[in-house]
Amino acid sequence: MRHAAQVVCLVVAAACAHTAWAAQPAAPRAAIPGGTFATILPPAEKLKEATVRAFQMDRRTVSNADFARFVADRPEWRRDRVAPIFADAGYLRHWPNATTPGENLAAQPATQVSWFAAKAYCEARGARLPTWYEWEFVAAASATVPDARDDPQWRQAILEWYARPASATLPDSGSTAPNFYGVRDVHGVVWEWVLDLGSMMVSADNREQGDPDEKRFCGSGALTMEQKDNYAMLMRIATLSSMQANYTSGTMGFRCVTGPEPRP
Amino acid sequence: MKNWIAISAALLLVACGQQAATTSAPAETGGSRSGDFGPPQGEPVKAVLTSPPLVPPPTGRTAPAKVIVELEVQEVEREIAEGVKYTFWTFGGTVPGSFIRVRQGDTVEFHLKNHPGSKMPHNIDLHGVTGPGGGAASSFTAPGHATQFTFKALNQGIYVYHCATAPVGMHVANGMYGLILVEPPEGLAPVDHEFYVMQGDFYTVGKYREKGVQAFDMQKAIDENPTYVLFNGAETALTGPNSLKAKTGQRIRLFVGNGGPNLVSSFHVIGEIFDKVQPEGGTHPQENVQTTLIPAGGAAIVEFHTEVPGNYIMVDHSIFRAFNKGALAIMEVSGDARADIYSGKQADESYLSDKVGDLAPVAAAAEAKAAGKLTKEQQIAAGGALFKGTCSVCHQDSGQGIPDVFPPLAKSDYLLKDPKHAIDVALNGLTGKVTVNGKTYNSVMPPMSQLNDDEIANILTYVLNSWGNDGGAISKEDVQKVRANTKRAEGAAH
C-alpha cells in the first residue's frame, strides 16, 4: 500500500516543477566523527593509515523509489534518454518501464545504476558519493564497536553474503541492523559506488599511473593490499576496480554523504 | 678438491658417453621456440567446449587455425554432497569448468563473459598462455560484461586455467578452474575413451556432510584444512549413476587436473596400473606408474588398458581424503571375466593362528541351524571353539578377564543383568568406563562385526553357560535384529 502511494506521488511529482523533489530535505544522515585508521588500500608506500574528516552519511542505501523521484525530476537520466557514455545497456533495465520501478522493486536498493548516475543523484540532493576511505571507515564498524575488523566472527558473517546466489531478491533498503554509527546495509546487501572510483580503477589511457594492470589481478593485488585476510574488503575492491564509470550491475548500489570535500 | 675431481670425472664421462646420450635421450620438442607454425589458416573455428567428465573430440587439424573460445562465468548454487548446498563460481556452469581443446600453433581468440547475475568480477589465467598474467589482466570482467583477448598456443600439453581475481584463493576454492589441452601437431594417439577429472579442495563453515546451505570458511582455507576434497566438484559427481563407464579391452585416457587451491593430489586408481603417464602434463611419458603426483595448479595425462571387469576406484591416495572428505570416483568396467588374469576370491577360511582349536563343533552347529535342529548344547560347543580363537585373548579361557584391564565374563553382573545387551557389545564394541562386579574398567573392545550372526549367537550362548553363569541362550535371529538396527559408524564400511 505504501509503495503504491509512492508511485502515485511520483506520477504527480513528474507533472510538477522539476526542482520540487530536489528541494525536499533529505532524511537526517548519520554523523560520522571521522578519524585516522588502518586502511586496506595504503594511500602511499609505507603509509598504512588514512584520515577522514567528519561527515554525514545516508543511513540506508538509495532505493528504487528514491531513484524514480530523481529520474522524474531529471528525465535526462531515464533509461530511454540517458547518454550511452554515462550508462551501459543494463542501466535500470530491471524496471518494468522507463519511469517507475514497480511495486516489487520500490523499496529495494537502486541497482543497475552507473557511477555517473549515482553521482548525479547525490549532487541533485546537495550531497556527494562517499570516498573509498569514508566508506571503508564506516564499514569497519560492527553493531557495537567502530572497528570490528579483527573479529573473525564478524568477518565470517560478512562472507556469508557470498554464499547466497546473486539471483536471490535483494533485501529492502534499510532493512538490515544499524551499525555503530546507525548506518544500515553496509554489508550483506549490495556493493556501493564510491566517489574516487577512478583512483581504484585504472583507465586505459592513464599511462602516468605506472603499471595499468596494478590491482587488476592476483599478483599485484596480493602485494599492494594490506590486511590480506580481510576477504570481505578485498572483494569490495576487486569489484569496484572491475567497474568502469558507465557500468551497471544488479548488485551495485549507492548512498550519499555530505561533508567537507575530500582532500585531493 | 674432492669435488673438483668428481667434476672432472663427470666431464670425462660426458665426453665418452656422448654417443650413447644422443641415442637414448628423448628428442626435445623445442618448446615455445618451435611452437609457432605461422598465421592461422582458413576460416575461424568455434571451439567445442564440454562439461566434465566429457572431453571434446580431437581437433583433427593439420594446420594452425584461428579458434574462437566463448566461456561464460556463472555463480551457481548446487549440491556439493547429498543435502549440502554451496555457491560455486564456475567457468561454464560446472566444476571444473568447460574443457577446451586446441592444437599447438593455433591462435585462440578468447571471449570471457561474466553473467549479469554474478556478484563478483572474474578473469582467467590460462597456464597454456605465453604472456603476462596468462590472460588474467586482459580478461578482467565486471558482472554483465564480456572481454576479449587473443593468444597463440605455443606449447603443447595439458594446462590448468583458473580465475585470478583477488582474493584469488577464494575464487579458486569456489571452483574456478578447468583444463585446456594443447594437442601436439600430430595429435594424440587414438584411444577408446577420454575422460576429464579434476580434483579440488573445498572449505565450508559446517562440518563434512552437514546439511543445508554452507558458506565458504575463510579461516579453514587459510589453514589449508579442507572440509571436502572432491573430484569434479561434488561428492557424487563420479559415483553411482554418474560413474565413468568403459569395457574390458579398451584404452582409457584420463586428463587429470588439480585445481587446489591448497592440496597436492596423489592420484591413484585402485586395481589399475597406469601404462603411461605424462607427469605434470609434460611431453615425455613415464611408464608403469602406480600413483602420480599432481600439483595444485597442475595436470597429468594418464593412460591405462582395461583387462578385468569390475569397479575401479579413483582416489587421492592421501587416503583420509578419499574416505572422509569425498575424494573418490568410480569407473565401471564391464565385460567378460578374465580369471586367468584375476581370479576373484578363491578361498575364505578361518585362520586362528596359535589359537587354532578343533572347529568341528562350529561346522556341526552351522549345519544343524540350517536344518532347523540346533540344540543349546551344540551352540555351547561351537561357541566354545570360537571363544578360544577370538575372545579368550582378553577375557581369558577362564572368563576371568585381566584385573583392572579387561573385565570378567564369569559371574559378571554387567553381562548377566541384560544378556541381550551383550549382542550390541559384540557387534559394536565398547569404549569407556564400565563397572563390573563393583570394579571400574576403562578400556576399548573393538567391534566384532566380522563374526557372522551364527557365530555371535553361539559365542554368547557359550559365555552364558560357562564358569558358573546361569544359562540362557542367544539365537541367530536375536543377533540379526540387533545388527539390522545398528548404524555403522561413518566410514566403517571402508
Describe this structure in words.
The complex is a heterodimer of chains A (264) and B (494). Chain A has 264 residues and is an alpha+beta fold. Chain A has one domain: paralog of FGE (formylglycine-generating enzyme). Chain A contains 9 helices and 7 strands; from the N terminus they run H-H-E-E-E-E-H-H-H-H-E-H-H-H-E-E. In chain A, strands 1-4-7 form a 3-stranded antiparallel sheet, with no helix packed on it. In chain A, helix 1 packs parallel to helix 3 (64-73). Chain A is globular, with a radius of gyration of 18 Å. Residues 1-17 and 201-223 of chain A have low confidence and may be disordered. Chain B has 11 helices and 23 strands. The longest helix of chain B is centred in the first third of the chain and has 23 residues, at 2-24. By secondary structure, chain B is an alpha/beta fold. In chain B, a hairpin with a 2-residue loop joins strand 22 and strand 23. In chain B, strands 1, 2, 3, 5, 7 and 11 form a 6-stranded mixed sheet that branches. In chain B, strands 12-10-14-19-16-17 form a 6-stranded mixed sheet. In chain B, 43% of the residues are buried.
